[in-house]
Design brief:
Layout (H helix, E strand, L loop, with lengths): L8 H50 L8 E5 L3 H7 L1 E16 L2 E16 L2 H6 L5 E11 L1 H8 L5 E5 L2 E10 L2 E13 L5 E10 L6 H14 L2 E2 L9 E8 L2 E12 L5
């Protein structure tokens, strides 16, 4: 007659308990490593943010405290390698100056890729943090841009994907409202070229002199607008009108992001 041997189950139970204990320990260890990794990333982000703040100040500009995020996981392996996948920087309420006039950039997003920085640099804040590529996108408020054109009552806005202008103008003793759109290009020196070639005014007298005066006004506001120096040696590549302002896209290569001046 077969007999039961309950004592044979005990080693199996002990084995399961040991396995469960090991799994729990591994999960706890993994959790601690993730926490340590994020803490270390936070320390680096604060150090880089402080350096960016100093560089913005060197350019006689102002902004809210920089928001920095170090991308890629795990962070600690990137520290040991001295190379980081991505560093994202957000500058809000940037205030620059062009020819004595304030230029407002509500938000400037900077994306640095393949960033090189030694452990000593991250720890001490001394040394260069160099990005292989940097891309920046920002928006210049239309109010700031209108002030640079220095024409009383002139207003700028986006209309069907183009830069539209509205302004009061005195022509042959009449106060008229001029409307039209501009062509936008980026000059070699990074300035924004505005060309108003198609202006009209309701009620414009049907005489050649009136049209000549309107064309002269268009030429007067068709200017090359210099932009404030962008941080991180960014060079403007594209400008396009958006409802919230003039969107600027810029880039640079091999940039010390903690030495933008």
């Amino acid at each position: 007659m077969a007999q039961d041997y309950p004592y044979e189950e005990r080693p199996r139970r002990r084995g399961r308990k040991v396995l469960i204990t090991l799994v729990v320990l591994l999960l706890v260890l993994a959790g601690l490593l993730v926490v340590a990794d994020r803490v270390a990333a936070g320390v680096a982000e604060r150090a880089i943010a402080d350096q960016v703040r100093q560089e913005v100040a060197k350019q006689d500009a102002q902004s809210a405290p920089p928001e920095v995020e170090v991308g890629g996981f795990p962070f600690l392996t990137q520290v040991l390698d001295g190379r980081y996948e991505r560093i994202s920087i957000v500058l809000r309420n940037v205030q620059g100056s062009v020819q004595g006039d304030a230029v407002s950039v509500p938000r400037l997003d900077v994306d640095a890729r393949d960033v090189r920085a030694s452990l000593d640099t991250i720890r001490s804040g001394q040394g260069e943090v160099v990005a292989e590529t940097v891309n920046g996108t920002g928006t210049i408020s239309y109010d700031s841009l209108a002030k640079l054109l220095d024409r009383p009552g002139l207003r700028l806005a986006e209309q069907d994907g183009r830069l539209a202008v509205t302004a009061p103008v005195d022509i042959l003793g009449q106060r008229l409202t001029v409307t039209g759109t501009a062509d936008i290009t980026v000059g070699k020196e990074g300035q924004v070229a505005l060309r108003f070639n198609d202006l009209n005014a309701e009620g414009l007298p049907n005489v050649p002199l009136a049209r000549t005066l309107l064309n002269n006004y268009a030429k007067g506001i068709s200017v090359d607008v210099p932009l404030p120096d962008l941080p991180f040696q960014l060079t403007v590549r594209e400008v396009r009108p958006l409802p919230e302002g003039l969107a600027v896209t810029a880039d640079a290569r091999d940039v010390p992001i903690n030495s933008a001046g």
